[in-house]
Amino acid sequence: MHVVRYWFACRTEKTGRSMTMSKGAAAWIAAVLASVGSAAPALASDRSVALLPRPTSLTYQAGSVTIDSGTGIAVPAGDADAIGAAKLLMAHVAGERGLALQVADTQTASVHFVRDPALTRPEAYRLTVGQSGIDVIAGSHAGFVNGAMTLAQLLSPDDRFGQPVRVPALTIVDAPRFGWRGLMVDTARHFVPLSALTLIVDQMASVKLNVLHLHLTDDQGWRFEVKRYPRLTQVGAWRIAPSTGGPPPPEQVGGFYTQAELRRLVSYAAERGITIVPEIDLPGHAQALVSAYPEIGVLGDTPAVSHDWGVNPYLLDPGPKGVRFVEDVLDELIDVFPGTYVHLGGDEAVKDQWERSPKVQAQMKALGIATENELQSWLIDTFGRYLATKGRRLIGWDEILEGGLPPSASVMSWRGEQGAVDAANQGHDVVLSPAPILYLDSLQSDQNDEPPGRLSIQTLADVYAYEPLPKGIDPAKAGHVLGAQANAWSEYLATPWQLQHAIFPRIGALADITWSAAPRNFPGFVERLRPQIARWRRAGLEVADSAFAVTPKLQSSRGEALRANRVKVALVTQAPAGTIRYTLDGSAPSARSARYLAPLTLPPGVTIRALGFDASGRPTAAPRAFDTDREALLTRSASDLVSCPLGSLGLRVPRTADATANAPVFNVNLFDTCTAYPAAPLDLAGGFTVIVDRLARNYGLAHEAKAVRAAYNVTAHGELLVLAGCQGDRKGPPDADAPKPVIAASFPLPDPDRSPPRMTFSGSLPKMDGDRDVCFQFTSPISEPFYAVEQVRLVERR
Ligand code: ACM
User: Is the pLDDT of residue 649 over 80?
Assistant: First the structure.
């Protein structure tokens, strides 16, 4: 253990008396105290501290330590692990609290990094705050980093930037529940600039996430520079956007990382205790590769790098040429990425090209392999054994189980948890990253300002409720569960802003459930998350406020509200968001505005503005407004419209596939182009105006393509049919006894090659009883672009 030291800038809370300190330090403290006023800094919240993730054990003692700019940090001489962690601490405290800590000698330092070789549990640390200052004690680099990140949180409990912090005396003993606390970033569907990755790495470290899985290759782009195969990035890193009609835009989109850039990222991550797991996706999702090197494909043709999301047909050649190619790529990959695991994908490889290739069929015969899935297993095992000769391990998506799991492989389970259960019970290591719950491209609320993604909503609370140890795993095999990972697929996360919006704050929940074994308590988690959200924002990140935004919920149908000339609105939030306050006079809500207690009943025409405020009167989200005038009640935009029939794959998409701005969004169903305005008051509304956009049809649906509903078009490019009284808002098959909908209007659609992509149609609606659905069905040929509804405005009958 370290020696007893003197400190400065440390005082005991009980006595308020300064402890022994050097003369210079005393003068410095006097100056600082004069500059901040004589009031002692308050504890963030009496005797509690808010840490995310929650530590294994935290006990409070009497007293406190105050830390200010100039406080010294001492590290054991020559201990590179401790020095690195101390530097991280200094950087975080500077950015998150505005305090400049300084390296000092043991005698004058208040913060001591102390090596304790007895702390052998991976990533473990202890942290004590007491009479002798603050000690961060660890036996490893990761332990020091974790301790430093806990201390950084203790030193930035609130938004008093630049002011000293009083930390209560306490002892933390901490180690993670799981060793794999991961985040996957898909750099293939949309290239993610290196600077955006660096920011994410920084903030993963803040909450002790320790694996960054980079999805580096896919049909839409190859992002890893391979010196031996330069065309992979010269050709494979670039694609053109799909057409919404007429010639596609000429500019190419994409990008790639040089090996030098990735080495820098690897070492930046390693300094923060984070291992990067690179993924080369094989044998499917290989279209960019085949575009660059058709001879490494199966049938010899040269596709363009794909602009279609989903499943595309191009596969890797499983023969000697393909194997050699992959081994060459792996040689360069493992030279750049020193971590144990290499991810080789294995997901969604439709095997049609292999089925249709005489060469591949001959190879299967020669190997005595009966099915293409077994060939995939053989291939994965070949690469797994190759990696093993280099001291590495292979991990793949759960499809690699399908042809029999190669002994060498670990499994990342994404199609639910069954893959993990099966693989763990067979004695393989597994990581849980099930869709949809840990798929961060899922929307996180039903608010209409939520940017694009999968329509299945996965809230902050949903992620927090996820249990990474699935039922069904034999308790004796539970040790095979390495941990869990959230995946930020980027088809619809086109910009760093959108990527951050999807990741933050939900990875706070992931961090808590993978680090801490403590019983779950969502309100308590939210209280611990709040200061972390403030830190993330201070670091310049977009953090979604979806969980805390006040959402108005109409307590009746819009028709009922209009008929009664009264709207009843409840103001709700997903997560505890403090005290909700609102205004009805158009002014911005403040901590002194009316407090929301029960649903509001109002005449139409008022605008409700509402916001939550925490205990110290700070807003917990950006304010949201809700217009209740009759016209607003009759207008529905993309987020209020539903696909008909319900239950098909739903996406919220932007106007163009490679949108770089937060363009208007559309809720679409890939298998149909029918959009319903649910519960339209057809007794009141006599007309409609619909804004329609023509979008790219850029979905690789593979064998599901036959499920796309083609409606019969009776003019060259199809029509927009407006159907009053349809069953748009239903689940399951149509009700055969329901009355037939009335065709209220039919508009021929223009030639996509010769018309602007946005258009408006107006018409009248038949009078019907009460609230009925109105469906907007496009009958355009499925070989042509895709139509979606941006907005429907109903017009009251006079
Ligand atoms: C995946 O979502 N295809 C792993």
Answer: no
